Structures are given as structure tokens and as C-alpha cells.
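Everyone, describe these C-alpha cells:
***
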Amino acid sequence: MGAVVIAMGRNQDSLKRLQQHFSSTGRLITVPMTGTFEGDVAALRDASSSSSISGSFSAFLDLSPPAAADNTYFQAIISLLKYGGRVALMGGMKDGASIPYEKIM
């Protein structure tokens, strides 16, 4: 399909193993979560600018666990979606997620 995938996570060892496993494809970029909105936006922009994505995203697949309700990456990724971008919510955040309404309208 030609997709470039950006995988975010807290565990840097897991991200490193994932990157090593898929390094030959040239289609995976790993990004450690920073814990702040601004930090996540900057990390995602840096990662995407080094590929054909050019700073914005076409799609976001969320697989967040229930414990991820107080996260910063969710809003960061939505704020970087390009016009017409898609979001697929398959996670299960226990208390819901805060969505930057003005970004999706």
C-alpha cells in the first residue's frame, strides 16, 4: 500500500526492537512519547519531516488501552492530521479522550 507508519510508545526498548525488525522496509518510524502536547507535536513533526509524510498525517489508528485516558499524544496527532485525514478509534480509553474540536471542524 505504500504507507509510512509512525509508531509511538513509552517503552524505548520496544520501539528500538520494532525499528530493528522493520528497518529493511524503510516504512517505519518510531517516536517516543514525551508526555507533553508540545513535545509530542515536535517529536511527530521531526519524525515525519524526515520521510515522505512532510509534517502531516493522512490517517491515525488509535489502539490506546484504558489506562491511556490522560495522554498527550491523542491531541498531538489529531492536530497534525491533514485536511480530510481519517481517524480510526479501536482503543478503549476508560474515561474517553479530549478531542480538539476546532481542529476537526
User: Anything to note?
Assistant: The helical segments are 12-22, 37-49, 73-79, 101-104. DSSP finds four helices and four strands in the chain.
